[in-house]
Amino acid sequence: MLGKAICFTDSFVKADQYTKPDDSGMCCVIMARVLLGDFVVATNHSDIPSTSIQPPCKECMTTLCKSKPDNPHPRFDSVVYTGGLHKEFVVYDNWQAYPEFIIFYKRL
Ligand SMILES: [Zn+2]
Question: Are 6 and 92 in contact (CB under 8 A)?
Fold first, then answer.
């Protein structure tokens, strides 16, 4: 995966892959506005360790930044994953996403 983050996609097909129907067969996705800011593109899931809790460092180009606490390196705001059939947009802070609609549906 892409770390301990919140993942979004611009593809409803991809979002549907992550849903699980309830007992009545109802599925749910959330349509949100997402602030990506200054993002970095990742093409492999292995580019972002699954334990990552923040985006990669801009200078070290990894989530495992080697800066000193008194002089921290700046980090990207988000990750855009392009290695799959559908893009994924990854943010690490709740404030970067605004849920706008909840869509309930049943698969036919
Ligand atoms: Zn760094």
Answer: yes
Give the contacts of 71 (CB within 8 A, at least 6 positions apart).
none
CA 77 to ligand 1 centroid distance, Å: 14
Tens of pLDDT along 15-33?
999 999 999 999 999 999 9
Please report which helix (H) or strand (E) contains residue 17, including its range. Answer: helix 12-17
Residue ranges per structural domain of the chain: 6-106
User: Does the predicted model carry a pTM greater than 0.90?
Assistant: no
Tokens 């993942």 found at: 7
The CATH code for residues 6-106 is 3.90.228.10
Q: How far is the CA of 65 from the centre of ligand 1 (A)?
A: 4
Distance 88 CA to ligand 1 centre (A): 24
Q: How far is the CA of 52 from the centre of ligand 1 (A)?
A: 14
Q: Which amino acid is at 1?
A: M
Question: How many angstroms does the Cα of residue 68 sit away from the middle of ligand 1?
Answer: 9
